[in-house]
Amino acid sequence: MRLSLFTTLLLAPLAALANGAIVVQPQPNGSLRLFSEGQHSGGRSGSLSLLQPANKTVILQLQPAGDGRCENNELVAASLALSIHSSSPDTPLRCGQPLQLAASPRDRWIHFHANAFSRVRGSALMRQALSPRVQLGSFSFSVEGENSILTPLYLDLHVLQKTASTVSASFDKSALIFGEVGPFQDAKSSVRLRLTKTDMANSEPLSYKLSFESLQQQHNEWRLRSTPGENFVPYKIVIADVAIAPDSIYRGILPAGEVSSAQLEVQFILMGKEIRGIPAGTRLHDTLTAIITPES
To answer: How far, in Å, CA of 47 to CA of 49, rounded?
Structure first.
């Protein structure tokens, strides 16, 4: 799958380029942020502009370094392909090939735009990278008669890693209704909880911990609250014939494979004896949240 991710890049003045770096930073929503790090840049994003002095030629070059390589005139690393072109004049900057811009009788700004393509989703990109920040290449800017400025270019995955989720979960129904409950009869009902690997997870089996949270739990009991009134009625949560209390953890394993899933039946039991003394017609409710924590 090839997803087009594009944005523009702001480079600060040459002093900032000399002291900073160009950063490619994938975002959780699939977009891609590119920005410059330097004493004047502040990590902003916008358009890339460098000044070509009057009567001097300029040589530009995008070259691989670290984990980067040139492929089809693009800078490629960890399934990410990056290209840069100049819009004044409209000229592509091919990876590994110097681009010479002829001298102009006046100072002029050279404006650049960066396009990036990921052949995989951002999650797979994160898994392929060797570390949260890897060098892809470097960008050089040489002015005739002056020193060349070489600026490193990095792939930064910190944002993806902070927001990475390897397991998603959903109940097959948003509300569970026992119906009418009598004091001499227990009530049981169940929902199915589906756990699925996200594309952030690898293909290995994935261990997880499952627990639940409720604002009304107390003294290690799940409780239904009456409406109206302040009566509380305890109930039970059972998975695979094992009672899950507020301080309990259910452990399971999602099978090997990409985006594999498993389904759990979560049973809720309301003991009839617990509602004795509560007026008929009283409505009882609770809001429960499932907490899934991957362990590998």
So the answer is: 6
